[in-house]
Amino acid sequence: MTTEQLQKQLVSIREKIQQALEQAGRKGETVQLCAASKTQTAQTVEQAAELDIDLFGENRMQELVEKYAVGAYGSHPVHMIGHLQTNKVRQVVGKAAIIQSVDSTRLLETIAQEASKQNLVQKILLEINIGGEQSKSGIAPEQLPFLLEQAENCNHVQVLGLMAIPPKCQEEKQVRQYFSQMYQLFCQARDHYCTKSKMEILSMGMSGDFPLAILEGSTMVRVGTALFGQRQYP
Ligand SMILES: *Cc1c(COP(=O)(O)O)cnc(C)c1O
Prior knowledge:
9 helices; eight-stranded parallel β-sheet; TIM Barrel; single chain; alpha/beta; 8 strands
């Protein structure tokens, strides 16, 4: 894609974000745009980094490390948004501004250990499996208070919010319900379970459904296809 094409898609995404915010009565609020750049080359990412996006999101450790090493993200932060195996934590801690996909005690502790070694505080989101799908990562909503408490006991980790990928739904109404449940959980956590953590980021909404996610309270959308076009898997 040319930079002009990317720019055109971006303008359209930004407009839809704005419309959804207005429709939701959230005027004056902002939603962060995470460019989901899995499978995109370092060169494409560099092009996108020139545009008005807030951050990048990667799914695979290897891609994140490679693009990070060549400076493809420019001045933008990159977040880890894909499932992270514990044996890949070392390479991601300190590079990912936020690891969005934390969904187990074991992963949490591995991140905390590595962050301690690097003498930094790793920011994270907790991933919720809101549709209760076997095939998806994320914790069950009922496990949130427990994992949050564990995270608060780790000095080298700070929770900044929640992330979710709801099930694919035929009906808009259905997917909105999942987003709405996520928002309720986010508010509960913010108002009742948090002591040290900050509930600031609710990361939900992708190319097919980000306006609906914003209507239900999303503060960060992760958009791939609508920005970069169909992914080509090697
Ligand atoms: C790929 C991906 C996205 C973006 O998906 P699109 O439908 O292409 O916008 C968002 N979040 C995660 C975790 C992803 O893996």
